[in-house]
Predict the structure.
Amino acid sequence: MSIDRSLKSKNILVRHRNVLTRAERLAVLEDEDRWDESQSVFGLPKVVHRKSTAGQKAKKEEKAAEEAAAAEKAEPAAAEGGEAGGAT
């Protein structure tokens, strides 16, 4: 029986997963020179898998700065309109 298209996850490969498959763990261990073909695939050492968020903090700061600048531009215009309305 197949799964309905509406229930399938669209970004299944994009999201962060905490648990790696055995093949993924072996690839990481080979890159770190902690495993070779002569060793057993059972009882593998733990592998730290962290999602990198290097560029996201800078983007958030830039967005906050842009919003603050937009708010400052809107504030003087609102103050000028308020003074003219209060004088009449």
Notes: DSSP finds two helices and no strands in the chain.
